[in-house]
Amino acid sequence: METPSDDRQESSSESSAKASRQTGRRIWLNLHMFIGLFVGAIFVIMGLTGSSLVFRRSIDAWLNAHLLNVRVAGAPIPLETVLSNVRSGLPTGAHLHHLELPLNEKEVIRAVYWPAGSGTAIEMLVDPTTGAILGQRERDNHLTVLVYHFHRELFAGKTGETVIGTFGIVLLISLTSGIYLWWPRRGGMKTSLTPRPRASVLQRAYARHKITGALGCIPVFLIACSGIFMEFERVGKALINRVSPLLQDPEVASNTSAGQASISADEAMRIARSHFPSSSATYIEVPGSPIGAYVVGLRQAGEVLKTGGASALWIDQYSGKVLAVRDWENFSAGQTFVTWMLPLHDGEAFGLPGRILVFTAGFVPLTLYVTALRMWQLKRRARRRQQGISL
Q: Are 164 and 152 contacting, i.e. CB atoms less than 8 angstroms apart?
């Protein structure tokens, strides 16, 4: 039989638990507000620059149409003809490294080389249908690449990567605290995701903030996690490699003992495509020395890297023998995880819908920041009015 004393003890226990929950909620709320007000602007900048990078190839092609767009559509000429034209246009002592092949019939070939005594890579843009050299530019000195370097490391190298990675971790804390504060009680999910057009200005701002955070938290969370991994890639790869071996570039050399002449780039490409019949070639590295090998990058069906591809073959420049193979379908779990990070971060893994989703998610921090500032402003005005009335 329960006594009044038992009732009082139970009530006291419930009150204590409620007070504890309220204290915990206040801590999370203060943390969420502090991060939003003092770091939110950084999240906005990272989100907007990230959105612009989702379609960086298209933007680059639009801004530099005279360099990056094929003038007249037609059948591609042999790669050896392209290489001959490129080599004739190289400055003395320059080192040609590779050709980046077009992804579609409107794109040009990008021949990447390093001038003698320079650490700056140069792109020579070549029309794949005529072999005409359309122009040249520094690889790391145009708008979309500059935006990328700002987004990735604030133009500060490894130090900048650490800073951006740290901000990414802070963003995860902000998202976690926001979801905790938003999470509705049982049966209240629909109400918590419903706009309130007839409510007060403050309540409308609060509703927009909650709805944006709730709907955008999952894509922003995944984007942040993949970004953090890439910023701290060396540490992440070292940890993954302990449980699931990661691939290393093979150490190969062409056999010069037979005294054969080198095969052509077109023959190397034919060998690569015969090895992976359903693939598309994305680049070809040309031998840089008598023992160097051709390296052909390919994108197989089903690969998450839609533009670059993750598969590759190393081919003896004399005999055409395949010296090493990197096959997407045979990746370890760890290598597959690492390969997913970039296409997950920019949405490429899911095609155009994925890119649109990531592009849209880049505006989530802006919406959250604006609505948070609006709520802070309205609350501040309300407090001042109350203080004026009390006086």
A: yes
Distance of CA 305 to the CA centre of its chain: 11
Q: Which helix (H) or strand (E) holds 113?
A: strand 109-114
Check residue 391 and give its pLDDT.
46
Torsion of the alpha carbons at 242, 246, 249 and 253, rounded to the nearest 10: 80
Scored b (16 or more CB within 10 A) or e, 194-212 reads eeeeeeeeeebbbbbbbbb
Question: Which token pair is 161?
Answer: 């990567």
Give the model's pLDDT for residue 336.
96
CA distance 43 to 37: 11
Q: What percent of the chain has pLDDT over 90?
A: 72
What gap in Å lies between CA 278 and CA 284, rounded to an integer?
17
**CA torsion through residues 326, 328, 333, 336, sign:** positive
In this structure, what are the phi and psi dihedrals at residue 340, rounded to the nearest 5 degrees? -75, -20
- Interval 280-295: pLDDT, tens: 999 999 999 999 999 9
Query: How far, in Å, are 94, 98, 234, 279 from residue 119 at the CA level?
Result: 11, 16, 23, 33
Task: Note the maximum CA span of the chain.
Answer: 103
- The reported pTM is 0.90
Q: Give the model confidence (pLDDT) of 273-327 as tens digits.
A: 999 998 999 999 999 999 999 999 999 988 999 888 899 999 999 999 999 999 9
* Residue indicated by tokens 């993750």: 310
φ, ψ of residue 352 in degrees (nearest 5): -60, -45
pLDDT, one tens digit per residue, over 189-198 is 777 777 777 7
Q: Are strands 280-285 and 95-100 parallel, antiparallel or unpaired?
A: antiparallel
Give the closest residue to 194 by CA, choosing from 163, 178, 215.
Answer: 215
